[in-house]
Amino acid sequence: MGQTEVRDKLRKPVYTAIAQRLDLHCHLAHFDEAGTRSYLLHHLHYAESPSDIFSDEAIKEIFRYSAGSARLINKAATHCLMYGEQHQKKIIDDHIVRYVIEKELL
Questions:
Q1: What CATH architecture applies to the domain 31-105?
Q2: Could you state, in order of their start, the residue ranges of all structural domains in the chain?
Q3: Rounded to an integer, what distance in angstroms lies between the CA atom of residue 3 and that of residue 8?
Q4: Between 27 and 59, whose confidence is greater?
């Protein structure tokens, strides 16, 4: 249903009618580093992309940036893939991830 802030807002009496229409609530906890790797590799597999496009160090950098938040993992990975495509990189390494985070995401 959205971020924690949305959930908190929907608990207010003024939003009772909206809250009553939400039938499903789900909370996705942050991943640890291994979970971040699995999450990213699953998405790459689903997209039929090579699983080795991100180096091990790149995945560690994505985890450091995202703290395991799926939304931030997706954001960092997407920006890195776009950077890689624009600069014709076959592998996304930790240098690319740090550059993208510093120049595009912070």
A1: Orthogonal Bundle (1.10)
A2: 1-27, 31-105
A3: 9
A4: 59
